[in-house]
Amino acid sequence: MQVIKQYIEDNKQRLLDELFELLRFPSVSADPKYAPDVLNAADYVAKKLTDAGADNVEVCKTAGYPIVYGDKIIDPSLPTVLVYGHYDVQPPDPLELWHTPPFEPTVRDGKIYARGACDDKGQFYMHVKAFELMMQTGTLPCNIKFMIEGEEEVGSNNLGIFVKANKERLKADVVLISDTSMISMEHPSLETGLRGLSYLEVEVTGPNRDLHSGVYGGAVANPATILAKMIASLHDEDNHITIPGFYDDVTELTAAERAELNAAPYDEEEYKKDLDIAETWGEKGYTTFERTGTRPTLEVNGIWGGYIGEGAKTVLPSKANAKISMRLVPNQTSGAITKLFTDHFLKIAPTYVKVKVTPHHGGEPVVTPTDSIAYKAAQKAIAEAFGKQPIPTRGGGSIPIVALFEAELGIKTVLMGFGLDSDALHSPNEKYDIFNYYKGIETIPLFHKYFAELSK
Ligand code: BES
Ligand code: MN
Ligand code: MN
Fold first, then answer.
1. What are its GO biological-process terms (predicted)?
2. CB atoms within 10 A of CB 219
3. How far is CA 224 from CA 227, 318, 320, in A?
4. Cβ(28)–Cβ(114) under 8 Å?
5. I want to staple 307 with a disulfide (CB 3.0 to 4.6 A). Which of 29, 43, 313, 379 is the partner?
6. Is the preceding peptide bond at 249 cis, omega within 30 degrees of 0?
7. CA separation for the pair 403, 81 (Å, rounded)
8. How do the domains of the chain map onto residue ranges?
9. Whose C-alpha lies nearest to ligand 1, atom 13?
10. Residue 398 Cα, ligand 1 centroid: separation in angstroms?
11. Which fold is adopted by the domain 2-194+366-454?
12. Which CATH class is domain 196-250+296-363?
């Protein structure tokens, strides 16, 4: 432990400077205008892996953005940890809400403000630096492989193909990912599950052109009104989702599991204050933790139609659209849910409009084991670095690769995240605490140490 702390202390500024350099690449995978920056970010990651001491570093081409691979095999008879992360980030919009530019990392109050600071550059880069630390101090106790992708934020479409084609290269005993949250630094936690995702877009079309809302209004169905009604009908008064069959496959938690989950510290007042809301909301009969971690949901991610420019324009729009996502829990599958949604949405469409549903991407839910050697190693590492036992929680977000690794490679994952829900992932002013960054670099070598020890 002293060796680890000393190394971090001796390299403090450089560890931060390098992360800042990584954060300056606007590697937004969703928007093609950033393509050169995404590619440059991949090259930077590859260079840093090489510098840290990795072998076989390769920027592997895919049909989309490349996957950066690198490894260090010290002894084939030792266990192998596969570290996964993503160098792509969400779009920074709306730009005007950022207090400092999203791709010019700025420190305020001990926190790094930048798009990707927490999700996931700040977090995966801790692994690159922890690896460097282990190499430099001669303490790498097991084999390590890195796989850092560039399409996580857009559904990891090419990753499945890569994994299938590289089964031997990716062979490992466990996947280690830092791309999730902790409750707080005072209450370290380990996520033991992730929700799945079904994402689609809907379009409601009324008349064949935008109409004068005075000349035609009242006689022709307005697609925006119809879309709003259709969407509103997807939840009942108890905030249950009304799509027939939607809950059929949902695994209900046992009373003991619910009690364990709800034992985690949760401050409702703090939660509301952080979000500036008067009340929390959700499915009747469930707590906030249960709602985000164990229950499926349906959200509108964006909705538009008609005139949204400056001033006013009296128009009855021809079309209205929405992007809708559903978070899924164990036993639900994205394919089946996408179909249920599509059938239902077309069925509730009134005859005076046309409705189109276009699926985007999906991911399957996962629950990670808590009785494995790897999970125990993570528990021990966190307990030692934080001076407290981690609390198991269920994450509300999705990382599609986790289910895929399990299905294709038969490898389970440990989700050892160091972010906070309040780090504003995907929002303006995303941040990552410098403390968490160093704490992560300190905890990761301990994970490897205990994983190697417990595997003996
Ligand atoms: N790192 C997040 C997922 C996450 C965040 C899990 C916090 C648990 C806690 C990841 O980058 C992400 O945003 N995933 C997407 C899914 C993807 C298919 C677009 C998501 O959850 O929306
Ligand atoms: Mn992420
Ligand atoms: Mn994300």
1. proteolysis
2. 8
3. 5, 9, 5
4. no
5. 313
6. no
7. 17
8. 2-194+366-454, 196-250+296-363
9. 153
10. 4
11. Aminopeptidase (3.40.630)
12. alpha beta
Tens digit of each residue's pLDDT (9 = 90 or more) over 215-248: 999 999 999 999 999 999 999 999 999 999 999 9
Q: Is 152 a catalytic residue?
A: yes
CA of 181 to the centre of ligand 2 (A): 10
Separation of 86 CA from ligand 3 center, angstroms? 9
- Tell me which of 18, 37, 71, 88 is the catalytic residue: 88
Residue with tokens 């500036």: 276
- Which 3 state secondary structure label does DSSP give 61? coil
Whose CA is closest to 299, among 183, 178, 195? 195
pLDDT (0 to 100) of residue 401: 93
Report the run of H or E that residue 297 belongs to, with start and end.
strand 297-305
Quickly tell me which residue has 């969703």 as its tokens: 30
- Cα separation of 30 and 323, whole Å? 15
Residue 88 annotated in active site: yes
The residue written with tokens 């490992």 in the block is 172
pLDDT digits (tens, 9 = 90+) for 147-192: 999 999 998 989 999 999 999 999 999 999 999 999 999 999 999 9
Catalytic annotation, pick one of 18, 152, 173, 421? 152
> From CA 220, how far away is CA 417, in angstroms rounded?
52
